[in-house]
Amino acid sequence: VFASLLSNNFEALHFLDLLYLSSSTDQVEGRLGPSTVVLDHTSGFEGLLFVDDDLLGVIGHSNFSSIRATTCAYKGKWVYEVLISSEGLMQIGWCTLNCRFNQEEGVGDTPDSYAYDGNRVRKWNVTTTNYGKSWAAGDIVSCMIDLDEGTITFCLNGQSLGTAFSNIKMGPGVAYFPAISLSFKESVAFNFGSRPLRYPFHFYIICYLPLQDPPTADLIKAHRLLGYMKTVLSTCIDTQEEKLTEKDIGSWQLKGEPTVLVTLAHIFNYFAPLMCKVYLVEDVLMSFLLGILEGGGSVDEHPLIQQLLDLFWLLMEDFEVNECLKQLMMSLLRAYRFSPIIPDLGFQIHYLRLTTAILRHEKSRKYLLSNVITFDVLRSVVFFYIKTPLRVKEAGLEELIPTTWWPTRFDKEGKDEKDLRHETADERMRRRAYERGCQRLKKRIEVVEELQVQILRLMLNNKDKGTGEASRYIFLNKFRKFLQENASNRGNPTVLCPPEYMVCFMHRLITAVRSYWDEGKRKSTGAISSEDDLATKANIIIDPAEIQATSMDDLDEDEESGAAQRPSGAAAMGGALARPSWLSSPTLGRANRFLSTAAVSLMTPRRPLAPPEKVKVRSLPVEQRTEEDIEGSHGNDGLLLGRPLEEPDQPITEKSLLEILDGIVMMYNLSVHQQLGKMVVVSDDVHEYAVALKDTEEKIARCPGRRPDILEELQKSQKVFAEKLNHLSRRLAWINATIYSKEKMLDVYWLLRVCIRTIEHADNTGSLFAFNPEFYLNVAMNSYSALKNYFSPSNSMDELPGYEDTLTQLAAILAKHFADPRIVGTDIKDSLMQALASYVCYPQSLRAVERIPEEQRVAMMRNLLAPYEQRPWAQTNWILVRLWRGCGFGYRYTRLPHLLKTKPEDANLPSLQKPCPSILLQRHMAELLSQDKDMAASFLNSVLNQLNWAFSEFIGMIQEIQQAAERPERNFVDTRQLKVCATCFDLSVSLLRVLEMTVTLVPEIFLDWNRPSAELLLRRLAQLLNQVLNRVTAERNLFDRVVNLRLPGNARTYDMSPLCSVTRVVRLTVKRINGPAIARAASVLLSDPCFQLHSIQHLLGETEASTAGADHKHFSLHAYTDYISAEEEQKVEQMLAFLTEESKQAAATTPTSEDDLCPICYAHSISAIFKPCSHKSCKACINQHLMNNKDCFFCKATITGVEDYSKPAGS
């Protein structure tokens, strides 16, 4: 029976061969060029481009690059597909050979070229008009040309966008090439017919043909052979009755009758060569395998695929099965990546199930891991990505989420109100319906994510050692190379993983690694598994002494001096002790992976450490590392010497998991954090449109009935805003489910704890801190920022387990290391300082700083109070200001009063948070400044120096701005100049606030003249305060005119800011209490040459009517009742009365003789005599002079002392 079956059918196959040979010689009319259509990379391009090896994929690498295909059409109806890999600026279509492109003009910009641009949603043919829909990465554009009717049409994901162009040029000598122009880093892949078109049937109805002919004869042959194979697999030989019986094909097993295997071998003799062709693999084999899984159920319920793969490896040559598997996996990747999104995500699930089934086959999995799945842009990372739909209607989100919702209540600062008590019944019903829709969507997405995790778990299998190296170690070597490429080739788009892919890949990898960790812990006797176990116990044990003793033979160091030259103590992260190449992460050598793994613990050496000796470290390329290189052997591997005391008998987990964990941390640092920040823009857009909609509804309610025209326009705006919010709210639901869900938040939180543990252990170990990769600190800071800013309001940090303890641990790291002398890298130092500055802006994190041990708090404040010279001081000063904000005079605002009606660029900025002062840290500051007189003097001198510089720079800048504004010709003030001006103003105000804080907490620094520097500090303070007051309060002065210009970028320049802080300092300095110190302070202030009483009067709006026009609005503290209390106003009035009285008395005692005045300033009476030369001046002049020079004004003798001088009686 089998013999007759074979003889008849193989005769038919010979006939098909003859048919193929005859048909392959016929050229279909209407085309010119090679039968295999590819991109013309030799002469048909303009600009710089990267073209793939198959000549079908292209990436732009210049401003606007263009390229065309090798084959053109002059008659008939033709189509090709473009797979959109990035959604940026591109123009796709057709052009003639006469078209000449350049870096500015591409396809569609010349007369005989026609293009569709889905980025700007336009069509181009010299001129441009609106056309089509916007495209997104993962879409497929079909480009059709009808040279019989003279029309060009485009389709997006199989849906026609309508005829784009008609009456195109045709005739003799006119032929059209497929062509594209694309901007920098944009990428696409073409399908001219080398693979089955994704949307063919829609086009074949009207006879559109792919530009490249499909292998028709081979297709018929392959389908027929596949039919024979199915017949054999579903046939069973009944030896007793000597007949054939049918059986379920799904139950077939390789171990069966020899006759069946012999028959299959004959079939594979013809079938195997066909399976090396991509078109046949995708159209025949992949469709057949997908059909096996169509019945549903788990992948385990379909063992036939495993049996078929066994059959492939048995009956096909190695090179044939290798090529077949490669093309099959690449076809699955393309199919998954460019599948349209439907409500149940059926396409994605279908392709992932088949991928899982294939990877369950051990031999196939190892081959694919070794040769195909190599984590570049178009490889397996694609399987772990879930693309976000740009068009929610086509994705079916309207069915999943029929009811939309968005915030409708906002506080006066424009932020969403989280209090739901004021919610109406209708709003509550809408919100709950929206949340139910979001949950439905999340469950669909979780099915896809679970399949993706299954794929990763198969790749991380380390028990399949029977057929060679385990899958995990193959995966790990590829993974490290993937990280190297992304870390070292940030400017090369051909090897970079898109950040949106990296986010999804990282989350799936974390889930897979933690599941393997938990499995290993459950198998360990007596081990306790917990959610946080890996974060706290994933330790690689390194002996720092041996690290120092190891000679860097890989680097060709001097063998005699290599170890001796290495420092024996703690080294500086990123600076003093440079990390050699074999210690760089991702790692290249055998030992370095242990130095950058997930966490580093204290260790107990198994052997006494000998004196430093040279140890040869073997360096291996990443691809050549074996299991022994990664895991070690017999529990000992070079630098691994012991285990923690608390676990003397418990084996350390597989080090391969720790190396993967190290890679996860690096992934977050490379691009995940930036991508998390980018996706927040959708939430921001929802908020912005919701505010605009509410504002429009309020205007409609106030619109008078006599203005129907205004009402009509408002209602149109209302409709537009509502439609946009419906779209955005559904898109936000998708993003929250895929990126900002509770599970993703827990992943990032877990990563934060891993980094914290790593840093703590490295710090405790001493010199090992130098080898801790800098990106661990960056990830610790950035992951906390992401949890705080990106995952809210849908998820709150307060709900995370151990949240407060984690905040405290991170606070301790920031407080200790922001001024750590071991860290000398400027970038990481700046990052730590900025992170601490942000940390103290939020109540919860500030309380965490207050919970760290007192010794660390005091040390932190001591570092903050170090002199400002020769170090970045702006962030330090900002930290002190934040600790004070909420306690200062008129310093209880979140935003300046005049800016409340404007929308902030980012409401989550630390500077826009509500005041949350720290009384505890203020007390530490007061104690330090009070007890350490030298530190107090140096700190305040540096603050006064910086204030003098910042305010002088500010005044200089506004002079230039005023001059530019007054010129008769039209001039525009440079934006950068405005920003510098605003920055100098902000610095001046913040320095004034620090002075206010110091005078409030430790007034004796200025008023206790028993302290050696008190008088000098007080005089300097009075001089600067008077300068600021005079500049800001003078009527119609420079400051007043520039502020009233209201220039964009200079809006923060506002007179309330400096005047409030100056008012508090002056009031505290001269407050009316008994005591000689206050009298001296008032005398110093009044004796300053710059003191003007009307500047103090200006604070309360008491200015002379003659000096100001009637239309000029006067400044007055009385106008800020929301920020300044009545009690504070009363104290200012008392201060003004006191200074008025004191100034009258001072005027009455002014010397009448010129001989009694200081010969330098002629403003004050002589009050000091120099030793030993006995020359005289006022104290203000000599104290200012002695700050920079010790020589006498007059005789140049060295001044050894200054004594008080009073004019003798009767002289």
TrEMBL record:
PANTHER family: E3 UBIQUITIN-PROTEIN LIGASE RNF123, RING FINGER AND SRY DOMAIN-CONTAINING
UniProt name for this protein: E3 ubiquitin-protein ligase RNF123
SMART domains assigned to the protein according to its UniProt record, in alphabetical order: RING, SPRY
Entry-linked Pfam families: SPRY (PF00622), TPR_RNF123 (PF25576), zf-C3HC4_3 (PF13920)
Biased composition (Basic and acidic residues): 624-634
Principal location: cytoplasm
EC number in record: 2.3.2.27
Matching SUPFAM superfamilies: Concanavalin A-like lectins/glucanases, RING/U-box
Gene Ontology MF term list: ubiquitin protein ligase activity; zinc ion binding
Keyword Transferase: yes
Pathway involvement of the protein, from the record: Protein modification; protein ubiquitination
Cell compartment(s), UniProt: Cytoplasm
Domain B30.2/SPRY: 17-197
Enzyme class label: transferase
Keywords: Cytoplasm, Metal-binding, Methylation, Phosphoprotein, Transferase, Ubl conjugation, Ubl conjugation pathway, Zinc, Zinc-finger
Reactions accelerated catalytically: S-ubiquitinyl-[E2 ubiquitin-conjugating enzyme]-L-cysteine + [acceptor protein]-L-lysine = [E2 ubiquitin-conjugating enzyme]-L-cysteine + N(6)-ubiquitinyl-[acceptor protein]-L-lysine
UniProt lineage: Eukaryota, Metazoa, Chordata, Craniata, Vertebrata
GO cellular component: a single term: cytoplasm
